[in-house]
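Data deposition worksheet. Section B asks for the primary sequence of the deposited chain exactly as it was used as input, without tags or linkers unless they were present during the calculation. Section C holds the resulting structure in token form. Section D is free text for depositor observations; keep each observation to a single sentence. Incomplete worksheets are returned to the depositor.
Section A, Depositor: J.P.
Section B:
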Amino acid sequence: MHAVVLAAGVGTRLGRPFPKSLSVLPTGERILGRQIRLLREAGIARITIVVGFKKSLIMEEFPDVYYCYNPIFYVTNTSKSLVWALRHMDDDVLWLNGDVVFEPGILDEMLRAPAENLVCVDKKRCGEEEVKYAQDGAGYISAISKSVEQPLGEAPGINLVRKNSLSAFIRALDACEDADYFERGIELMIEAGERILPLDISAYRCVEVDFVADWELAQQMFAGR
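Section C:
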């Protein structure tokens, strides 16, 4: 299995002069450093970070992982950052946003799950800016975006695509507009006939840091290891 962390964005909503994945948690770890550590502790040794904004800061901080550079990060969104990395892979791929702070049990659940494509979901009430999801009658993901009607909860940005679906996912991401999040690629992948199973992680602590309030919550939730 290969892991991909998306850390190319400017993070304008948080307003930091550096990549928000370098924000330091109360434990002294940076968000990205914690992600790398947890991925390795879960047994995933091949880790690629997609960089863009002030990439040298990330690369100097974490020199012992692989890197993929999105040279047009300032005019593209996560759909294009992700496809830059996936083109060079031929394996199961677990990917996540570089601003998600989460418990290690989530990775354990993903690695124990059935051999299907997975989207981690948190069954809770969602705000306007959160990525939401819905399911079809068979229990698979039917919609995933910020504008899902009657959502069942949030998709915080930790996902897994299996090797046999990777080509279809790459085609779907290629079909996305530059401004699209990778969730649009998931929807196009579903429209093409692929199935994606929601993995309920509601029992675990997990927060995606988009705004100052999210960062404050992450500091409270992860004051310890």
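Section D:
The chain has a mean pLDDT of 95.
The domain at 2-221 is CATH 3.90.550.10 (Spore Coat Polysaccharide Biosynthesis Protein SpsA; Chain A).
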